[in-house]
Write a structure and sequence with these properties.
Order of helices and strands: EHHEHHHEHEHEHEHHHHEHEHHH
InterPro entries: Aldolase_TIM, TAL/FSA, Transaldolase_2, Transaldolase_AS
EC number: 2.2.1.2
Radius of gyration: 20 Å
Strand order of the largest sheet: 1-8-7-6-5-4-3-2
Largest sheet: 8 strands, parallel
CATH topology: TIM Barrel
Structural class: alpha/beta
Number of strands: 8
Number of domains: 1
Number of helices: 16
Family: Belongs to the transaldolase family. Type 2 subfamily.
Subcellular location: Cytoplasm
Protein name: Transaldolase
Length: 359
């Protein structure tokens, strides 16, 4: 068993944070599924910009699409929707074998709609229909408008990966919106057992923002907290998740075979070379979670990562870390809002570059 595949017995699924036509057609993705038990795939505008701009397998199709009377966004979707469909088809066997737990492939709505709830709903429904695969997930940002859209999409029976979550407010808003969406679906007499959603919590970006503030404070207490804040936040968020989905409110939905909304760890490549290069994987393994991992970090974990149940350990220390950060004058919730805005801006910029490619 590979070191990556050894994570699955602890209840966590590993997804690949990358997608390209070359990855599919070379058989590399199939190999990762077979050898490392990769159980899903995520994409975003930055990933597709890199793929389309560097993978020669897109060149001919893009040239043909540019001869057609289409918008740049229509050409982009005409390129990537077949890749999403092909990936869904590749992972369909694991979706079927696990009764819909594994095998998901995510495609993001247009980042320009981040603050437009109805626009997000319409875009998500259109992409869901275009992909036409039960193991697709539509990615929606966890902005205020995105959460409104997310609830409606869950009620409509669409699988969603809601993304760009950076603080406990984001986590709690998203998880409760998921339950409301399922409750509305159940109240309408519709089945709830096939709806799946994940809530993507970002990690390395948190430490990249907080660490310089700790450096600036410069006390031994502050310096000792470097590289610990994101992991502590995730451990606390996981306790919120368990309290909600193992509690009384979800019990009625659980009786109807509804699925809990799993937390997903994103941005899991270690940015600071002074830290353990697999810490955002190794230190956060636990039941009913997903970790979406970039290729480079997968390779590092395959080489020297250790699988163990680490997510539910040292919770008191995690809480103490967040308290210590607050006592040092660092507003974690405000930092989370800044990080979400920064993430939206990055995806906007990547999407604009994508559309430049397909003009």
């Amino acid at each position: 068993m590979s070191r990556i595949a050894a994570i699955k017995p602890f209840g966590q699924r590993i997804w690949l944070d990358n997608l390209s036509r070359g990855l599919l057609e070379s058989g590399e993705l199939a190999r990762l599924i077979s050898e490392d038990d990769i159980a899903g795939v995520t994409s975003n505008p930055a990933i597709f910009y890199k793929s389309i701009s560097s993978d020669p397998l897109y060149t001919g199709d893009l040239a043909e699409l540019k001869k057609q009377d289409l918008t740049a966004e229509q050409r982009y979707e005409a390129l990537v929707v077949p890749d999403i469909q092909a990936t869904c088809d590749l992972t369909r066997a694991m979706y079927d074998a696990t009764n819909g737990l594994d095998g998901y492939v995510s495609l993001e709505v247009s980042p320009t709609l981040a603050n437009d709830a109805q626009g997000t709903i319409d875009n998500a429904k259109r992409l869901w229909a275009a992909i036409d695969r039960p193991n697709a997930m539509i990615k929606v940002p966890a902005t205020d408008a995105g959460v409104v859209a997310f609830e409606e999409l869950i009620t409509s029976g669409i699988n969603v990966n809601i993304t760009l979550m950076f603080n406990l407010k984001h986590v709690d808003n998203v998880l409760t919106a998921y339950i409301r969406g399922l409750e509305a679906r159940a109240a309408a007499g519709l089945p709830v057992d096939k709806v799946q959603a994940v809530a993507s919590v970002f990690l390395s970006r948190v430490d990249s923002l907080i660490d310089p503030q700790l450096d600036a404070i410069g006390t031994p207490e502050a310096l000792a907290l470097r590289g610990t804040v994101a992991k502590s936040f995730v451990k606390v968020a996981y306790q919120h998740y368990k309290g909600l989905f193992q509690g009384s409110r979800f019990a009625a939905l659980k009786a109807k075979d509804a699925n809990p909304q799993r937390l997903l760890w994103a941005s899991t490549g270690t940015k600071n070379k002074a830290y353990n290069d697999v810490m955002y994987v190794e230190d956060l393994i636990g039941p009913e979670t997903v970790n979406t991992v970039p290729d480079a970090t997968l390779a590092l974990f395959r080489d020297h990562g250790n699988a163990a149940n680490t997510l539910d350990t040292n919770i008191d220390a995690a809480v103490a870390t967040l308290v210590a950060v607050r006592n040092l004058g660092i507003n974690y919730n405000l930092a989370g809002e800044q990080l979400q805005e920064d993430g939206l801006k990055q995806f906007d910029e990547a999407f604009a570059k994508l559309l430049d490619l397909t003009k």
